[in-house]
Design a protein that fits this description.
This protein is of the alpha/beta class. It folds into four domains: 2-334, Acetylglutamate kinase-like (Carbamate kinase, 3-Layer(aba) Sandwich); 433-582, VC0802-like (2-Layer Sandwich); 588-740 and 939-948, 3-Layer(aba) Sandwich (Rossmann fold), CATH 3.40.50; 757-925, Dihydrodipicolinate Reductase, domain 2.
Length: 953
């Protein structure tokens, strides 16, 4: 009984829908203004435009573009072919936008210097209207009052746009408003019946939601009609467009890459369009071609049942009518400058693609590019009709043109010379775009041990029986494990279907597990050049690895035009940006946080980055985007993707109205949330507190540049954990600038080890303060005076005791020793302090310098004693790699050692190794002062960005 009642209700709804559609058809016939009444059809033998007539065979794809009849039609006064323009809801959201569209149509109809052009516009519903009408239908099941309110809002908003658009032409607007109100009553009658059956038949939803397009077409037609300068008419596509497909499917999901198998019946549609043209052809006006406005999205079946081309299907409507009219071109008007290399909302560096092949466009659309619907290409391919994607708000921009087919693999293999030439050409990028599909789930069967059974066939059969859309499939060669990506909304359905299909095997434990993994996204690269260039997949995968993006599934299309991976949903944007950078589609951008940016070194670094920014962008394709900066008490973060203006950071940190209290946890949240694939924290704080976060930062794929020494020389267990995190997550912890500023000390150690050398001893001086003081003071300039000069030049640490006690150099020695492989801590360093035990390091710098005057005489005595021996005083470190002992001492250095000739602002490191046994390898150079320290940090930043882009194509 329930089934009979349900079928009866559907039948009633169909009857009512049919009456509504008839009403709409009658309106179509009666609303053409008197001045534009139809004239008889006039064939034109010189026209290249015709209404396309196809055989029924073509519906099933078995026929080519040959026609059963071939009749040429053209508006009088022009030999130009039709051009089709499609406008989406975003272009029709307000009265002003409707006016913009109408004016643009009139301008396009005037042609491009080759005479007037017959113009057809396919329109979507007003922005947001379809969603509102869906609410009307769904709401009727629960609360009829709510449905009435939503319906009233929908109709009222459309009337408001109409009245604002055509304010003083009641002869045009009043009949339309009257019909809108009648439509409202008819819709209300339809949805009231839903409460009786407590379900929504697919045809009801499609009938009601289709009114958005019907109202939109009439509204735009009213404006064009009010101009009185161009012949115009509008078509309810349900009167002419006949399709076949599953009428019970419903609207489908918004943004879906499928029309649910709906295809036009070309012969029936052509006959109906031909009939419409004969009866309602707009009356010609002097020097004008007609503008015909058509409802997108809607159609009807061969059984006269109203249906749609499913959500986002208006693009399909446009290309269907392009094929029917044998149009010269189709223009999809969007609110972007064409098809972009990636979604510009997620990849700010994305830019418009000048041209695409049909196949590339379909691949991009299938994998989530919202600019075009995948099915939209199909009607244009056979007739080779170019599709343009242009910006309604920037019509002067050429946008993207889509035309031509990609060669098949067989054709590509037969053109070896072309492939070699392509590879040899410079500047060619093998991919056209990068796109993604969000809200994906993975369904996995693993551990199948069913001998002789076709696991894959049963697996996919279960998916097909449950009507689950399989987006990607991968399997082990033995069929023991299979994973598919499905829409997340169908994940539970897919899992249930597999449990039913393999119920017996699960009970017998012939299958280890069936699992569902939600919150996934597909990221895909697309381009015909992928089949012609090696290394594309390597570049793609490497870029994701460098961005710390874990890949859960990999699949490559057999056409070799796309490679898709499945990643965590939260990593999708970072993956898009990483791939976009890797294929040189955009500059390499690093998101940088500078902690301690107002100190001497931090200030110098900010100044150097700001001064080199233009050169980095233009010459190296690098953008160091500072997203966060701090002082010891406060922090500021960027408000957009352009980052902070470094010239303003200091003022922002001083302002009472900007920023927030400095907090390492907040910095961590900002950097973890950053979608840029290359993230770097520059830690100029030189605090042990920062070290507590290093392991977490590295584990999240965030690189660290650490000019401070307290972490690298701090707790050995923490140090080892940080190193393990760095190695385990393929990220970098650069400490080069913590030892010798811009000198390549640590990198030299690595080079020696990696080339097989063995270190015996490392000696030298790594304190700018000590180097300056002991190269400066003598009988005429006291020790304390030289120390004051070093402080004035910025050579000393913030805490002068760090220098004079030897702690600063000892920390550098520990860092070097650990790089060599010695498990050394600060307490293990034999250290000579220049400060007597009576000195207090709690005093400020000026007070300490005053107390240092008491050191002038003993230091002068040691100076003279060394001078008498032909030596010089130097504060020297030594690392004995054999015994692991480390020392920092003030020694008398003879003129046979390189340290004897150390200059005022220099550091020096001598490597005594197996290969450099007779004469040590010496790294020496200026290293004292904030400018040199900042340049070392800057070099580390550039080294990271270059390493990131090293494998780019």
């Amino acid at each position: 009984m329930k089934t009979d009642r349900h079928q009866s209700s559907i039948w009633a709804a169909l009857l009512l829908a049919g009456s509504i559609l008839s009403s709409a058809s009658a309106f179509t016939a009666t609303k053409t203004p008197t001045s534009l009444k139809t004239a008889s059809l006039r064939p034109s033998l010189i026209s290249s435009s015709r209404l396309f007539v196809a055989t029924e065979q073509e519906v099933d794809g078995s026929a080519s573009s040959s026609t059963s009849t071939s009749t040429l039609y053209s508006p009088p006064g022009t030999s130009n072919a039709w051009e089709i323009h499609k406008f989406g809801g975003a272009s029709l959201a307000t009265a002003e936008l409707y006016k913009t569209v109408g004016d643009l149509l009139c301008q396009e109809a005037q042609g491009r210097g080759e005479g007037v052009i017959p113009t057809m516009a396919v329109v979507s519903a007003k922005g947001g209207m379809t969603d509102l009408l869906v609410q009307v239908v769904d709401g009727a099941l629960l609360d009829m009052n709510r449905a009435e309110v939503a319906l009233s809002e929908a109709v009222t908003s459309q009337i408001a746009v109409l009245q604002e658009l055509v304010p003083n032409r009641h002869d045009i607007t009043e009949p339309i408003i009257e019909n809108f109100r009648q439509d409202e009553k008819d819709i209300l009658s339809v949805v009231q019946s839903l409460r009786m059956i407590q379900t929504v038949p697919a045809v009801t939803m499609e009938v009601v939601t289709g009114y958005g397009e019907i109202w939109s077409a009439q509204t735009l037609h009213a404006y064009v009609q009010s101009l009185d300068t161009v012949p115009t008419a509008w078509i309810d596509a349900r009167d002419v467009l006949v399709v076949k497909g599953d009428s019970n499917m419903g609207l489908g999901e918004k943004g879906a890459a499928s029309t649910g198998g709906v295809v036009p019946l070309w012969e029936e549609t052509t006959q109906k369009l031909e009939q419409w043209w004969q009866e309602k052809q707009p009356k010609p006006l002097p020097d004008s071609s007609p503008i015909v406005i058509v409802t997108g999205f809607v159609a009807k079946t061969a059984e006269n049942v109203p249906t749609t081309l499913k959500r986002s299907g208006s693009d399909y409507s446009a290309t269907i009518f392009a094929k029917l009219t044998d149009a010269a071109r189709v223009t999809m008007w969007k609110n972007t400058n064409g098809v972009y290399t990636a979604d510009p909302r997620r990849v700010p560096e994305a830019f418009p693609i000048s041209s695409l092949k049909y196949d590339e466009a379909m691949e991009l659309a299938y994998f989530g590019a919202q600019v075009l619907h995948p099915s939209a290409m199909e009607p244009c391919i056979d007739k080779e009709i170019p599709v343009y994607v242009r910006n309604i708000f920037n019509p002067a921009f050429e946008g993207t043109v889509i035309r031509g087919r990609c060669p098949t693999l067989k054709e590509s293999n037969e053109k070896k010379n072309a492939i070699m030439n392509w590879r040899a050409s410079s500047g060619e990028i093998p991919i056209k775009g990068i796109t993604s599909v969000d809200k994906v789930a993975l369904v996995t069967l693993e551990g199948a041990t069913m001998a002789g059974a076709s696991v894959a066939a049963r697996f996919l059969g279960a998916m097909a029986s449950a009507d689950v859309t399989v987006l990607i499939i991968t399997q082990a060669s033995s069929e023991s494990s299979i994973t598919v990506a499905v829409p997340e909304s169908q994940g539970e359905l897919a899992l249930a279907a597999l449990k039913d299909a393999f119920e017996l095997e699960l009970a017998r434990e012939n299958i280890n597990s069936l699992s569902l993994t939600p919150d996934m996204s597909i990221v895909a690269i697309v381009g015909e050049g992928m089949a012609l260039k090696s290394g594309v997949s390597s570049t793609f995968m490497t870029s994701l690895a460098r961005a710390n993006v874990n890949i859960r599934l990999i699949a490559q299309g057999s056409s070799e035009r796309q490679i898709a991976v499945v990643v965590e949903k939260d990593d999708a944007t970072r993956a898009l940006r990483a791939a976009h950078m890797a294929f040189t589609l955009s500059e390499t951008t690093a998101s940088v946080a500078i902690l301690g940016s107002t100190g001497l070194v931090g200030t110098a670094l900010a100044s150097q980055i700001q001064g080199q920014r233009e050169m980095l962008n233009q010459e190296l394709g690098i953008d160091l985007c500072v997203t966060c900066a701090s002082c010891s008490t406060k922090m500021v973060s960027a408000k957009d993707s352009r980052g902070l203006d470094l010239s303003e950071v200091s003022d922002l940190l001083k302002s009472d109205e900007e920023g927030q209290e400095f907090d390492f946890d907040e910095v961590t949240k900002i950097m973890e949330a950053d979608v840029n694939p290359l993230r770097i924290i520059v830690d100029c704080t030189n605090t042990e507190k920062a070290g507590e976060y290093y392991e977490r930062w590295l584990s999240k794929g965030i690189h660290i540049v650490s000019p401070g020494r307290k972490v690298g020389s701090g707790d050995l267990d923490l140090y080892n954990k940080i190193c393990a995190a760095q190695k385990g997550h393929a990220v970098e912890w650069y400490t080069e600038s913590s030892v010798g500023s811009a000198l390549p000390v640590i990198s030299t150690i690595r080079d020696l080890f990696e080339t097989g050398d063995r270190l015996n001893k490392v000696t030298g001086c790594l304190s700018g303060t000590m180097a300056f003081v002991f190269s400066t003071f003598d009988e005429s300039l006291s020790f304390s005076e030289a120390l004051s000069m070093a402080a004035e030049k910025g050579y000393t640490e913030n805490d002068l005791c760090e220098d004079l006690s030897g702690q600063d150099m000892a920390r550098k020695v520990v860092i070097l020793a650990r790089q060599i492989g010695l498990d050394v801590s600060l307490d293990d360093v034999e250290l000579e302090s220049l400060l007597p035990d009576t000195f207090s390091c709690a005093m400020d710098t000026d007070a300490l310098l005053e107390d240092c005057k008491s050191l002038d005489k003993p230091m002068l005595d040691r100076f003279k004693a060394a001078q008498e021996k032909g030596c010089k005083l130097r504060y020297k470190f030594e690392i004995d790699c054999g015994t692991g002992k480390c020392k920092c001492q003030l020694l008398e250095i003879p003129n046979t050692e390189a340290l004897f000739r150390l200059k005022r602002n220099e550091n020096l490191v001598a490597f005594d190794t197996k290969r450099y046994e007779t004469s040590p390898l010496i790294v020496k150079g200026a290293a004292a002062g904030p400018e040199l320290a900042a340049s070392g940090i800057f070099a580390d930043l550039l080294r990271l960005t270059r390493a990131y882009s090293a494998n780019q194509i």
